[in-house]
Design brief:
Two copies of one chain form a homodimer. With 360 residues, chain A is an alpha+beta fold. The first copy, chain A, has three domains: 85 residues, Rossmann fold (3-Layer(aba) Sandwich), CATH 3.40.50; 61 residues, ATP-grasp fold, A domain (Dna Ligase, domain 1); 167 residues, D-amino Acid Aminotransferase, Chain A, domain 1 (2-Layer Sandwich), CATH 3.30.470.20. In chain A, the strands form three sheets. In chain A, strands 9, 10, 11, 12, 13, 14, 15, 16 and 17 form a nine-stranded antiparallel sheet that branches. In chain A, helix 1 crosses helix 10, helix 4 packs across helix 5 and helix 6 crosses helix 7. The longest helix of chain A is centred in the middle third of the chain and has 17 residues. The N and C termini of chain A lie far apart (50 Å). The N terminus of chain A is likely disordered. Chains A and B meet through helix 1, strand 16 and strand 17 of A and helix 1, helix 11, strand 16 and strand 17 of B.
């Protein structure tokens, strides 16, 4: 078992599990700090492959490929939370995995995540476990419809979820999510959603970016705006919530926390143990962005200055939005980030733009 | 001969001659626009190799490697001006080479460059060609010592140059530069040096970044600060000079122009037909930096918004400066860019930092 040294020397190779756009931008950030990246992804020609030092194309259960990958890197991180547990255990026995295996375990299971947050004294939507139609019928006595039934594991961007209106058939609802182990969540009456992107260094130092305000469409993030509409106490609450989560997990790296803003205070929606789409604005608004902050943390470097010096609006380019590219390229104050995806599909994140305005 | 299409489609491969730090940062910028890069460099493991799609390690006269390289890319650009003319001619017969072969020719020869600038009506230091000691003796009648004798070709960062004081032996001076064809330049009495980084699109549109003020040490750029100390007329003169050069060359891409500021006006020191060290500050100060501006131009995209929204000081990390890295990483408002060079050598550019301050 090779524990990475406290401060990764320049030239070291950082392993990244998953080769999508987040890995692509992590890889670029790593290069700014003099590191190389080795990306592991089952899909050929992943977006990160254009800007990384090395790519391994292999399945998550290909132990000899995993062994070679682990042997070629100084530390391992990931760009998404749904890495198969066996893969993770295999790698964690060989290299330092950062943020940490525990963070992945918590965020891979919606029930565990909610329980973890509640045990930390944080407020979440009301929730109950559901293991079949009879469970669901009973849960609907406590959490009144309208409510939402979600699979415990996997699922993102609105997949693996079904909304329940009053009188809906529990059997049909469970069937709609494949009768998978699930969680029933009550709705939260919120005015808007914000997210905090926060980081914790190997030395335990914590830093948070200014919270951003999120706008979703069809379950997919459409836009993040900074500054968010938050009072000063709300803003500091948001940061304290993120810090509490980071410390509880003994976390190393960047974490995204989605929060609902309600008259009664902030409600934690979910956490992502990785760089997060709602933190892409930091590329345009800060000396050190979320990608570099993550690399700094997992490499044992001091966290960088994430203070925001301009207002930013981040807009995702989703599916056919990419047709607007020529127009977007000519806009004032706009930086474009494309992910190198050849095929345009509805709902697929093709890129994003950051629009800056002088800070108010 | 394959002429690149007017607007390079995303996913296209851009060829870059030279794989140093400029190619490294060009490659990252290309990825933001959805392009891949193929780097050609005789040296193994070039800095750009960490973040490019493909690397060819071959000599400049390896025609079969050049042929394969040319066949794999949609357009060719370069990160340095001293590409052997035969290499360039071979490639230009196969692909679009941008900025343009003419710009390289002009900047490869100090005498041609000065003559080109003078013919454009621009002011340069006084200069005369020198082809040996007797030429030099005669030239020193017109351009009085102190003066500087420079080889016409090659040489950078203070190499291939010798200073002449009054009474110095012409024979010794010529010997000091290997008796190469040379140019004698008079000194210019200037208060400070600025540079303009300007771009010209495939459509002929011209845009310039705010001029930066340069500080050299031992012939190597140490620091660039924006805004530069310039009056409004000087600032507009600087931009007009760059535009005149770009248009005269029918240039496509980013060009650096170094200017001496004198009480009588701006004097052109030299031009660089590529992204330039004195433009690195744009990474921190603009929505679109010089690297992306160059990629946009050569890819036929509209030029981006290079307006400066913060004040920036760029400092090069040269040789042993890299030992200050731990301290620099912790500085407020600072972004670090390392070039992934394993070996530290005196005078070697290892990286740079951009320090931002709110715009005045």
């Amino acid at each position: 078992m090779t524990e990475a040294r406290v401060m990764l020397p320049p030239g070291s190779v950082i392993g990244i599990l998953g080769g999508g756009q987040l890995a692509r931008m992590l890889s670029v950030a790593a290069s700014r700090l003099g590191y190389r990246t080795h990306v592991f992804d089952p899909a050929p020609a992943p977006p990160a492959g254009d800007v990384c030092f090395r790519v391994t194309t292999a399945e998550w259960d290909d132990l000899s490929a995993l062994e070679r990958f682990a042997g070629s890197v100084a530390v391992i991180t990931f760009e998404f939370e749904n890495i198969p547990p066996d893969t993770l255990a295999f790698l964690a026995a060989r290299d330092a995995v950062r943020p940490c295996v525990r963070a992945l375990q918590v965020s891979q299971d919606r029930l565990d995540e909610k329980a973890f947050l509640r045990d930390l004294g944080l407020v979440t939507a009301p929730f109950l476990p559901v293991n079949g139609p009879s469970d669901l019928a009973e849960a609907l006595n406590g959490i009144k419809a309208p409510a939402i039934l979600k699979t415990r594991r996997l699922g993102y961007d609105g997949k693996g979820q079904v909304r329940l209106a009053e009188g809906d058939d529990p059997r049909a609802a469970c069937a709609a999510i494949g009768n998978a182990p699930a969680i029933l969540e009550g709705f939260v009456d919120f005015s808007h959603e914000v997210s905090v992107i926060a980081a914790r260094g190997l030395d335990g130092a914590v830093a948070a970016f200014d919270p951003g305000q999120n706008l979703h469409e069809g379950g997919i993030l459409r836009q993040t705006t900074v500054p968010a509409q938050l009072s000063a106490p709300q803003r500091s609450d948001a940061v304290l919530i993120a810090a509490r989560i980071l410390n509880a997990l003994d976390y190393v790296g960047v974490l995204g926390v989605e929060l609902f803003v309600t008259p009664q205070g902030l409600v934690v929606n979910e956490i992502a143990p990785r760089v997060h789409n709602s933190g892409h604005w930091t590329q345009a608004g800060c000396a050190v962005d979320q990608f570099e902050q993550h690399i700094r943390a997992i490499a044992g470097l001091p966290l960088g200055d994430g203070n925001r010096h301009v207002d930013v609006e981040m807009e995702n380019l989703i599916g056919g939005d990419i047709a607007r590219l020529p127009e977007v390229l000519g806009e004032r104050g706009t930086s474009v980030h494309l992910y190198g995806k050849a095929e345009v599909r509805p709902g697929r994140k093709m890129g994003h733009v950051n629009r800056i305005r002088p800070a108010r």
